[in-house]
Design goal:
59% of the residues lie in helices and 0% in strands. The chain is built from 4 helices and no strands.
């Protein structure tokens, strides 16, 4: 429940996060960021998405982590428009890897 609430608050795309609003980006607009987040959300919740296995990370939490990684990257490096989707995929993989480290049995 908490991860759903966090994700819904985070997805208020009218107001980009503070990290994204830094003047680092000259080619990427808030609308492009919103379109990337919409596409990533569709990939995460799509019909062809793999079933969630027991013990795997919460998909909502993974989505939230992905968006956080994207914003962190966009705040640090200028990105060209044609690289934006690749960065979204890379951030998804980084979020999945980080989440898998937390799920490993001790």
């Amino acid at each position: 429940m908490l991860s759903t609430a966090r994700c819904e608050v985070f997805l208020e795309l009218d107001r980009p996060s503070l990290m994204f609003s830094l003047p680092v980006q000259t080619h990427i607009t808030a609308k492009m960021r919103a379109m990337l987040f919409d596409w990533i959300s569709q990939v995460h919740t799509g019909v062809n998405a793999p079933a969630v296995l027991e013990g795997s990370p919460d998909p909502q939490d993974m989505l939230f982590r992905t968006f956080s990684h994207v914003d962190a990257y966009l705040s640090m490096r200028p990105v060209l428009m044609h690289d934006l989707q690749l960065i979204g995929v890379a951030c998804t993989l980084a979020a999945a890897f980080a989440a898998s480290l937390q799920v490993l049995p001790e």
